[in-house]
Every structure is written in C-alpha cells, then in structure tokens.
Amino acid sequence: MNLRSIAVVACILAAACGNDTSKNTVPVADMSSAPDSTAPDAGGRDVSMPDVSKPDMRPPNLDMGPDVAADIGGDMIDMEVPEPPIEITWPTDATDYANSANITYISSLVFPPLVDGMATCCFDYGARSKAPGLDNSFANLNQTLTGFGVNLNDILADSLTTGSLVALLDHRELDGPDDPNGFVLAWLRGEFEGGTTYAQAAAGTGTFLLDPDSLEPSGEAKLFFNPASMSTSQMAAGPAALSLLLPVLLSSLELRVEGARMSGDAAIGVDGVSYQNGTIAGYVAVREVFDNLNAIVDQQCSCLGAVGDFFTTPGNGTWSGQCVMDPEALGCTEELCIALGGNQLDNGGVCAIASTLLPQLADIDTDGDRATYEAISLGLQWEGAKGTIVGVGN
Q1: What are the backbone angles phi and psi of residue 97, rounded to the nearest 5°?
Q2: pTM for the predicted model, two decimal places
Q3: Which residue intervals of 167-263 are DSSP H helices?
C-alpha cells in the first residue's frame, strides 16, 4: 500500500477528508459519550475515530455452525470446557515432516462480507465482546474500506500469490474422515519449493519447504490444536493460538491470533488433505499490533529519533505515538517510516490515526474486567489444497 493509499485510508477512518460517514457501509456507533481523542501535535485536526468494531445490534437467525451452537446462550469463553489433549509422538527433527501424507496448504483467506451491516462469520465471544452477535471487527473494517477502494482481501491475496504467506497444516494421528479418538492439528509456516507457483500450490500439486522456526528444538510444533476432531469429514479445532500474516493499516504484520478456532469440510486422500468452507475465528491483542509496529520503528526507522518504544500506553486502553510533523525533514526516506512517524494526513502520515484507530477497533475483553476491550476480533473464510513438504528451508 503506497503513501497515497495510506492517506486515503487514514482520512476515511478519521472522517478528516469531508466524507459523509453516514454513507459508509458499516453503521457508526454513537460516540457522543466517548472521550475526546484528538491527538496531540496533529495541527489541531480532530482525528477521533468512529467505532467501526461492530454495530450494536444482534442479527436474526444466524447460523453459527456446529462448533458454536452447543454454547449459544452464554459466555462462550467462560462456559467452554476444553477436551483433554491426546498423547502423540512428535517428529524429533524438522526433516521428519518431509513427505507426510497429511499436509494441507491454505490456498485462500478472505474476510467475509457483512449482511445488512452484520458479521456472518465466524464466532460469538459472548459476554466478553462489545456487542451481541458474531464478532468480526476486521470484517467490519474491511467493508468500510472497500467502499473507498481499499480492500484488505486484496492484500491477503497478494501475500498468498507472492508466497510471503505460506501456512501449512499437518494432521498428526489422523485416522480418516471419522476419527473418534481425535488428532493433533499443527500450524506450520513454510515456503514454495523450487519452481512451485501459487497456481500449482492452490491446485494441490505444490511442494513446500518447512520453516524450521515453526518448531521447538525437540521437533514439536510451536503452534497446534490438541485435540482436533474429524467427524464425517467435518474438522473442528480450538481454541488455541496461531500466527498469521494479517493486513493492518500500513502493511502485513505477523500477528499472534489468540482463542483461535478452525473448522472446515475435509477431503482426505493418500496424498494430503484438502478443505472447503473453512472458517478461522480468533482475536488479536491491540498490544500485539503495537509491539509489531514498535519493532518496525526500532529496526527500520531510527531516523524518527524515538526514545524507547515509539507507541506507548498508560495501561487504560489508550495509546499514543511519538508523532512528528515532517519525517522527511528528519532524514526518513522509507515510505513505511514516513507513514508510521508522520501525523500529516495529506502527506500519508498515520501516526496519530493508528494510535486512535486500533484501540477503537478493539471489541473483545481479555482480562475479564469489562471496563476496556483489549483485542480485535477476526473471522476468516479459508480453503486448503493438498500439499507435500519435501525439505526444510533456511
């Protein structure tokens, strides 16, 4: 996303470009009682955010799926009793994952559209969410942006086709389309091997190299669902944690998704497992996003002259950045640094906007105090193709 696109997004979300937000696809919550969020050093501009996390109404008769239906009527996090994990023998080395017959390459990831302004996928976090109904703050954000020519799904698709996002599933101890004993679903990172293209990978003929950073030194996967279930070719897994390359404002960030749940319709063959109609639900901590942005500034943007972390919080759910008027005057040349550090919207600076927008997107309470919301919900639809791990990457 270039500086011009970033500025457009920032202006849209800040209502700073004169757009009538009443025409946005997503209804805007009443912010009349919200504290004044005008950012300091922003030239007097009001950069307060509309609440795009979720409309405050419940959709009628939504099909929440079999993994949700049993828990309807209460707080689905508090009520859930996890199944005991199953014992498996993990590979002792990354090379032992090669030529596994139970590998899936995630070939498609999409934030689903809203219907009548309401999320249609993928999970309701109950009393811990800001409003009733399915929780998908990312989908609400995306539908707002698409009306202005910015689509997060295009960024996801680009990550897949270029190979910067290669997510692989390894089904440990899976015994077929009906597995009453359960199995372990490992979430692995990888890369295209040799001449493999995205088209080949999506067609189920791709070969992959495993990223060794996906594994503990013992060979156990760092991220996995235990147990996962397979019943009449219907897979369900979670909650657990996974790592996913997600588009957030300026670029795609490798973010940890907590409380993740996966489901899908599986086709199990001798050469791998493919999926259709898959869903992924979870939430990303606001602090996780800012930690990633701080790491970018620390590693790439010394020109901004930040003292300590660039974005900080006093711990009450609000954040601020060490925004500057003109990053280029400080010697910044990278577009990402100019955008992250600047507070001038007309030059693509989104420092003040990011500090306000991301906390406004939060709609999941993770610490149980119900006073603030610390995480941003997401729901994705996905498909998976058969794949083969043939070796280990660097």
Answers
A1: -80, -15
A2: 0.79
A3: 198-202
DSSP-assigned letter for residue 106: E
Cβ distance 30 to 1 under 8 Å? no
Residue type, 165: L
Residues 219-249: tens digit of each pLDDT = 999 999 999 999 999 999 999 999 998 887 6
Strands 375-392 and 179-192: unpaired
Indicate the helix (H) or strand (E) that contains 155.
helix 152-162
Q: Helix 351-361 and helix 3-14: axis angle, to 10°?
A: 50
Q: Could you give the percent of the chain with pLDDT greater than 70?
A: 78
Nearest to 98 by CA among 392, 393, 394: 392
Which H helix or E strand runs over 290? helix 286-300
Element (H, E) at 251: strand 251-269
Nearest-10 crossing angle of helices 3-14, 137-146: 110
How many Å apart are CA 185 and CA 171, to the nearest integer? 5
Give the single-character DSSP code of 221.
B
Place of tokens 């899976």: 174
Q: Are 120 and 238 in contact (CB under 8 A)?
A: no
Torsion, CA 87, CA 366, CA 251, CA 162, rounded to 10:
20
